[in-house]
Amino acid sequence: MDMINARFRIDWPSFTLDVNLTIPGRGVTALFGHSGSGKTTLLRCVAGLERPSHGYLSVNGQIWQGEQEWKPTHERPIGYVFQEASLFSHLTVLGNLRYGLKRVAGSEPAKLDQVIELLGIGHLLERKPDRLSGGERQRVGIARALVVNPRILLMDEPLAALDVKRKQEILPYLEQLHDQLDIPVLYVSHSPDEVARLADHLVVMDAGKATATGPLADILARIDLPIHLGEDAGAVLAAEIGAVDSHWQLARVDFPGGSLWTRDHGLPVGRRVRVRVLARDVSMANAPPSHSSIQNVLQGHVDAIGEDEHPGLALVRVSIGGSQLVSRLTKRAAFDLGLTIGQDVWVQVKSVALME
Ligand SMILES: Nc1ncnc2c1ncn2[C@@H]1O[C@H](COP(=O)(O)OP(=O)(O)OP(=O)(O)O)[C@@H](O)[C@H]1O
């Protein structure tokens, strides 16, 4: 089975990286954690830019680092995308992509046309980099990383240097990477929103260690992790558009165990989507609510109770059929409801973010 196995130990005077990871060999794995937790250092180890004293790395069956082996960076088939794309200013976009192609030694280059289409940069090919917006530059940077036909794509906060509008512009292209690329992507981010939209798999980094690793929905629904997300705490559900109410312009998203109504985005019935439900938008009751303007009411049972960042708040995980939602409520409300593990509850969901 396709896998990435990575074991690295680095001892610097003020920082130790010590990880032992198995990551799927396909899809987007986000390396998520606070500043200084070691995300970039881990990415650099995979790229061969750091040489850990103890290390092992195999990427889908190829060993890049072992007891005896060490492949230097230029022999590793990687694509690397940084916060800001450093394009050659004297070359056009096409010139920059062709320059990238020269790096391909021995292996078949990616199909240039496919990469250009994937990133939607066909209309920019004759432009020089100084006539591109930040988001366009970054799309060209990603295309350049892909033309070398890498076996893994490493992305280090590729949206961090962009303003909100540019981020929104580039996110749909990044979302397509899941479906269209058959190589693994390691994506460094400290934005919960980006991670919720883009990642399939999550590695949570804290002080040089990987404190949790697993499928995105499972890790986000864990309420016992040392990394708290504050206002961004919540769950992500894999769902499908189940029905559209064109009169009220609403769409129903179905997920294992239930369904929720949200604004219609014009997506067809049957389309697979992701749904993000923030913990602050989920309230709880121990009887079915009778007079409420909130239409999204689901029945489930409490399966975990944990601490929030704020001492007056609790995080409660509720299991609904095969899915889990997280609710954030005051400890006083939790006490008043007499919440215990296994208790039946009704959750009301005030707002649902639909991600295509
Ligand atoms: N070459 C180096 N020598 C010594 N210490 C280093 C070196 N490179 C990074 N560090 C330290 O290692 C720690 C982890 O840095 P790293 O850049 O991997 O964190 P990060 O999680 O990517 O942070 P950010 O989100 O801010 O980019 C930091 O304390 C940093 O100062």
From TrEMBL:
Molecular function in Gene Ontology: ABC-type transporter activity; ATP binding; ATP hydrolysis activity; molybdate ion transmembrane transporter activity
PANTHER family linked: ABC TRANSPORTER I FAMILY MEMBER 10, MOLYBDENUM IMPORT ATP-BINDING PROTEIN MODC 2
Protein name: Molybdenum ABC transporter ATP-binding protein
SMART domains associated with the record: AAA (SM00382)
InterPro entries: AAA+_ATPase (IPR003593), ABC_transporter-like_ATP-bd (IPR003439), ABC_transporter-like_CS (IPR017871), Mo/tungstate-bd_C_term_dom (IPR008995), ModC_ABC_ATP-bd (IPR011868), Molybdenum_import_ModC (IPR050334), Mop_domain (IPR004606), P-loop_NTPase (IPR027417)
Coiled coil, from the record: none
Keywords from the named record: ATP-binding, Cell inner membrane, Cell membrane, Membrane, Molybdenum, Nucleotide-binding, Translocase, Transport
Every Mop domain range: 291-356
One cellular component (GO) term of this entry: membrane
Domain ABC transporter: 1-232
